[in-house]
Amino acid sequence: MPNTSKLSKTKNKNGRPPKFHESRRPVTVTLPESTLARLASINADRARAIVKVTDAAMPEGAKQEGVRVVEVSPGLGVIIVGPSQMLRKIQWLRLIEMAPTRFLLTIPLGTSIEAIEVWQLRTCWTMARPGIELVTNLESKTR
Question: Are residues 81 and 106 in contact, defined by beta-carbon separation less than 8 angstroms?
Fold first, then answer.
């Protein structure tokens, strides 16, 4: 009678080689047919196509720009920020996605500078260092 435990170990050991050289896990997603067609044009292997598109959109090791003020006319600018879970938690603030990892920061009309400054003070007292750096960077760019 064959030893089944030995066979199962051999099967796992001699299975398909990994596609990627880092930790990975299976993920199930439902995508539109048009997206699947575009992914297929990049690589027949969907996983490799998704990784390739993600790497192109968000290169690993590329420094994300935190806060940027884009001047739209003399003395008038718009605030562009990178992704931030902290900013998403602020109910009165809106992040409008302009491109992957770039958001237009909008503040409702009538929001006073004092309200924003109070928010900054409260936030700095309750957040970790990356959040403090974001608020400090935001403040310095908007003054």
Answer: no
